[in-house]
Structure formats: structure tokens, C-alpha cells
Design brief:
heterotetramer; A mainly alpha (176); B mainly alpha (115); C mainly alpha (112); D mainly alpha (523); B: 115 residues; mainly alpha; Helix Hairpins; 3 helices; C: 112 residues; two-stranded antiparallel ribbon; 52% helix
Chain lengths: 176, 115, 112, 523
Amino acid sequence: MTSGLIVRTAGRLIVPLIFIFGFYLVAHGHLTPGGGFQGGAVIATGVALILICYYYKDSIEKFSPAKNFKLIEASGLLLYICTALSALVLGSSFLFNWLNASGGLFGHAVTYGINAGDLFTAGVIPVLNFAIGIEVFGALSVVLLYMFAGLRETTRAEDDAPAPVLLKKGKKGDRK
Amino acid sequence: MIANLPFIAIALLIGIAFAIILLKKNMIKMVMGLGILESAVNLFLITIGYREDGIAPIFTNAPEGVNMVLPTVQALTLTNIVIGVAGTALMISMIMVIYKKYGTINSDKMRRLKE
Amino acid sequence: MIGDLLTGYGFWNPLIWIVVMATGLLFAWLIWRCGESDYDKGTEQTKPYLSGNDEPPKGDVHIRGGNMYWGFTHALKGYYDKLIPLHSGVVNDYLTWFIIGVIVIFVVVMVI
Amino acid sequence: MSLILDNLPALLIAVPLLGAFLIPIIGRFLPKIRDAWIILVSFLSSMAAVLTAFTVYTKGTLVYVFGAAAGSGAAPIDSGGIPFRIIFTIDGFGAFMLLSAAIVSFAVVLYLVASQKERSGKSEFYALYLLLTAGIFGMVSTGDLFNFFVFLEINTLSGAALVSYHRKGGIAVEGALKYLIVNTVGGLMVLFSVGLLYAQYNSLNMAYIASQMTLTTLNIVALVLFITALAMKAGAVPFHFATPDAYSVAPSGITALMVVASQAGLYGLFRILFTVYGGVINTVTVGWVIIVIGILSMVIGVTMALPQKDIKRLLAYHAVSQTGYMLLGVGVAFAVLGDPAATAAFGQTAMEGGLFHIINHALYKGLLFLAVGAVIYRTGVWSLNKLGGLGHNMKWTMVFFLIGALAIAGIPPFNGFASKLMIYESVFAFNPALSIIAMVVSILTLASFMKVFHSVFMGPKLPEFENVKEVPKLMIAGMVILTIFVIGFGLMPDLVVDSIVTPAANALLNQGSYITAVLGGFL
């Protein structure tokens, strides 16, 4: 895999923006198009960009090894299922939206008609969105890390070396 | 006729997908064919939920008296996309292992299990 | 009666079956006991008689799984020669059978 | 306590999922208690399934609405009587399948904990195992077509991932990949037919669709796709090709559960046929289609099994062959569904025989796979040409294998005989030729198991297996659980049929009761 100076510099600029955009998609999932899966996938593309820019080996040394992403994935899933089970404790059925219009966190009442939307509405749905976002981010990152682990990579020294002068000799399609 | 256009596209996509899956021996191309098949099914689901002049189905945000497209099929499509991602990732990883062990991704040569 | 499983024609009762089998085995054992006991361990009579040849080592006389039923498969050679190549191990073929199945069943259900 | 009893259908899914998601965390920080945690979670989810089944058998069909406020019905009044939430509907048939899945999944966990002790990647392995259990439980208890598809995909994906474990040289991955590709196409076809039904009836609920069902060409297309895709999941000829490939390379305990997983596909097939399409379709034609698939599965499965040399592949072809018996019994019942006199005379018995065979097959085929897995665990040899004389060293495994082999061949007094007898006698009244084919297949089954038993356990002690020992106690415990059920079901077939099989058959034959249970007074 080759990734030159341009990719690395651009990646350094873009990665934080990708993370913020992914977080935005997750947080506004109940108001605008988007949601947990989409936001999590966007965040995972940021991880993919890091892997491309900074090489697999450097990334897992300086960034985080794959087993931490497994924990992130598991914690997202646990948050989901615990939120779903919490409704049982309150005497309703599985996944019941008990936070909705309760006045607490995400519990504002919804205004009808054309409006800009209120972030703190919709009850447990944003919580579930965050859970899915965390899960998808972790899971896709694990997938990427394991797939990158199977690739043969060039080193930084090889990538930064000046491009070899193309000698037109013995190449396919060359006149002889 | 114009309303049937999506269905013609779906039929074409399913035909192309099955042609790829049945005829291509390259496993990566087969996975691509499965992706096309999945997209065809997704397109079908979205199309049956379409309503003339419909707007996005955000109930609390909608003005009075307009059509909305069906939200259920969109939820189905999203779920199917998620499942498709998981399945494709698993298949690609397995093909990577096959390539490592067998040295080929040709389905004709990937037949140590037979008879 | 307890244990009667009605099958439409009659019934099946495993408890009666076990009692009958146990009685049969008991009788068999009694008859076997009446036999003459002239078996002596460690003498020549315990050795298998193989036309006067020496007995081969124990491991060699075990009939391996691949050798069993060769007569059956040989008799049905025409059938197996057609059947086994169908299980080709190629995924494309598996899916072709799926499509063929869909078409055949659809035609059958639509036409009849 | 009432918290648990009121929410049993939700716990059926929530307990294995919660357990599965905690495993990576436990495996990371407390690897010592991981095995105990697996056994605990599997036991709890099996208990939830057994409790659910018990509730269904005592109190009637369970309807559970996800995400609803306490006390609201399945079909709210403000939606015009259309159920729009995800609804779990567990009737007699679902409870029956839950029982079989619960028994096998718990027995297999005990076995796996011992047999996987020295393997790597255990956290993910067990997490996938519990996901597969959750997928099976979900498939057999859901009343929503799309939800059924989701659980089908969970089942396929986790099953394929589990198959790809452990066999060296990429061969396991090859089997898993074939299984995954084939079943992904099947799953997409299921989703396509779900879309076809949704486009016409604007609902995903099986009971609502069944109450509105008319016979259109689109519905026939959907039915054909359902039949083929789910028959592919169940491993029936001519869609069976990937099944032996996957079963023969999977870890043995997993194969035992995969049998149940494929039977969940069979559940879907019967549910679609009887409950959704039962009232409108030409049952004679479709019934004969099912019968022909069943006969083909039986004959081709067993004839392919006879010359096999790989011991697990042989068993896998027998799984195909035994699936044919279930399809035959239930297909006969479906063919005479429109004729109440014939149903009373032999259709009901054929149905009960076919359904009874499902749980019997799950038990004895599970037992056989576990016993063969024990042999492979100790010897590391798959080929029947190299095995021999193991009866001297592995006496318990030999006994369990013998019990399983006699049960699958239909020798009394084991459970296989009872269900096969019901199928033979009722199918004989329908068409004698079919019954004779079934008996011949049973004889060939016995023949091929004589081959396995002789070439693995009989014969003199071979020098290369001099030091083979009996397997660990936990693996024996897993086999003992299944053996108890195999013998128990064989000795008390009337009790089993009356208490769990007949309610299942009645639930399928009586389409109206399923619809009424969900829709209530709106019909």
C-alpha cells in the first residue's frame, strides 16, 4: 500500500472533521436523515483514513490495538440491550420508550408542525442511536484492523523515496 | 409506464445479479453480484413504499395535508443494508483466507469439499 | 394402557416390546446355559483356523470403512456415476440448482 | 417473578444477547470465569425457552408486543386494527421448536466448554454461539415476517462464522463460504417475497397477512421463493449441496446446533405454508411439491451417505436424508389439508409424525455428532479408512454412538422408531409407494451406520490409537443429556406426543386460532 505525503497531510486535516460529522449524524439521528449506523460508519471511515495515512503498524502502536475496539463494540451493544431491558424494570414491555415526554434527559415534549426540531426529544431513541453508533464504530474498526493486518504494507521509507525513473525497457507494450 | 420504470430496473438488476452469481467464477465478483442483488431488493422495498408527491415521513415535522412515503420499508431497507454490510465483510474476510491458503479465488478450484 | 402410541392402524407400546425382548433373551440365555461346556482357554481350539495358514496381525484383518458396501455401490454404478458429479463443490452450480428449483416449482404450482 | 413471567418472549432474545455481548468484556478482564459464564447464560436462556414453552402449553398462545406501553393490545384501535409493532407470537409449534433448541443448545455448551478448552479465540466463539441460539429462538417465536428475515440472517451469519473455526488448511473456511453465499441468496429471496407481501397488504404481521390473503400471481411467486429459500436453509434436495460441505468441517458441537438451526428454516417453511397460505393455496399441488422434495431428500441423502469416507460428511448427508422424513410427513398433511375426513383419518397422524421427527432428529443427530466429535477430539482423524478399534478405549462414546445410531435407524425402543412408525403408517394410507420408499431409506440408514460403527469402534485395537483415552467428563455430560432424552422419548412416546407434539400439530392445522390470538376481535 502506498500513501504519499499529500494523503497524509490531507488526512491529518480531514480526520477530525469526519469524526465530528459522524458524531453529528449519530446525535441528530432522530431529527434528520442519519442515525446510529450511518454515523458509526462515518466515524469508522475516519479510522480507515488513519490506517491509510499512518500505516497499520504505526496506527495500532500509537492509536489503539484491535482488542480495545472489541471492548468499544461490546459496550455499545451492552448499552443498547440495557436500555431495552430497563423498560422491563419499569413494568412495560421490552424496548418501551419510557423516557419520551417525561421531562428528563431527551424528554422534552415534541412540537407539531413545521419546526426546526429539538435535540432533546424522542426519549430512548437517541440513547439507542448512540449505542448503535458506538457499536458500529467499534465493529467496523475491528473489521478494518483485521483486514489491514492481512495486507502486505510498504514502509514509510519506501513511500517517501523519490519515484523511480521510468525506464522504457522490457515493459509490456513497448517497442522492441 | 413511467411509474413502472423502477420495477423494470429491479428486474434488470436481479437478472444482472443472477447472471454474475451463476456465471462468474471469480469469488470477489460473486460477492459483487450478491451486492447487486441486495441493492435490487433494497430498491424494490423503497419503490413499494413510494407515494406520489410524498415527503419524508417525519410525522411531527410535516405540514398539514400532504402525502408521506411509507416509513416501514425504509426501516426495512436500512436493516437490510446493515445485514448486507455484515455479510459482505464476512464473505470478503473468508475469501481473503481462501486466497491465502489456496492461492486462488476461482470457484472452480475451490472444491476440496465435494462429492 | 400406559405407553400406547396410536398410529391410526394400531398401536406401539415400547414397554410391552421391552418385556417381550427381555423374555426372549432370558430364554436364549437358558438354552445357551444348557449347552455342553468344553471350551478351554489357552488351547489350540481358541485359535482361528485359516486353511492351515498362520493368523495375520490383528490390525490387518480389520475391514476399513472404505471397503464396506463396495458391492452395493458397484451394483448401482450407473446411478452413482450420475449422482456424484452433481455434488461438484462449485458454488455456482449450487446456485444454479436453486434457480432451477425456483423455476420448476413455480411452473408446477402455476400450471396445476 | 411476575416481571420474568410477563416478559418471557423478550427474555428469550435478551438473555442470550446480553450474555453474548458481555463475553468479550469478561474474556478480556476475567478469563477464568468465562466458561462458567457461558454455561450459566446458556442454562438461563434454555430455562427461559422451557418456561415459555410450558406457559404456551398451559395457557395457550403467547402474544408479546415489543415497545408497547403496558396493557396495550397487539392491534391498537387507532391503527385500524393493523398490528404495526414487532410482535412475538408463540403458539404450540413455536413452543415445540423452542424446547428442542433449548435442550440441544444447553447440552452442546457443556460439550463445547470441554472440547474447546485448548483453542484460541474463545470469546468470539462463544459470543457467536449465543447469537446463533438467539437467532434460532427468534426465528421460531416471531410473528412478524421481516423480523423472521432478520433472525434468519443472524442465524446464517453466526452459523457460517462458527463453521469456519478450527479446521486447518482453509477447508473450514471453504465450507463456511459456500454455506454463507448460498444462504445469503436464500435470505435475500425471503426478503424479496416479504416485500411482495408487504406491497399488497401493508403489513408485516403474519396473522394479519393470513387474514387478508387472496391467491394472486404475486403471492404464488412469493410462496415459491419462500419454499425454495427455506428448503435451502433446511438442507433439502436439490438445495442441499452446501449443507454437507458446512457440516463436515464445522466443530462437532457446532454441527449439532446447526442441525437445530436448519430446522428453524423448516419451522419457517411450515409456518408460511400452513398459517399464512393455508386457507387459499391449492394444497394438493403444493403438498405434492413438498412430498417430492422430501422423497428426493431421503433417497439422495442416504445414497450419498453410503459411500462417504469422511465420517462427519456421512452424518451430514444423513441430516439431509432425515429432513426428508419431516417434509414427507408434513407434506402429506398439507396435501390433505382441504379434506377434513382424510385429515382426521391419517393427515393429523402424518403431521404429528413429521413434527415428532423434528425433535427426535435434533436429539439423536446431536448425540451422533457429539459422539463422532469425541472420536475426532481424541484421534484427530476424520477418515473412516484410518479409524478402527476405538471401542476398547472409548467405551462411553461407543455406547452413546450406538444409541444414536440405533435411534436414527429406527430400531425400537429408541425415539426414532416411534416417529418413523407414525410416518410409515399414516403415509401408507395416503400412498403406499411413498411409505415403502421411506422404509427402504430407513434400512439403508441402518446399513450405513453399521459401516460407521464397525469401522470406528469394532475390530482389534490399532497400534496408532493405543494411547487414546476417554473424553473429559463435561463432554460425556453433554452426551448424557441428549441420551436421556433419546431413551426417554423412545420409552414414553405417547406421553411426548400427547403433551407437546399434538398441540404443535393442532397449532399448524388450525389456522384461525393463530390469527385470532393476534388480531383478537378485529377479525
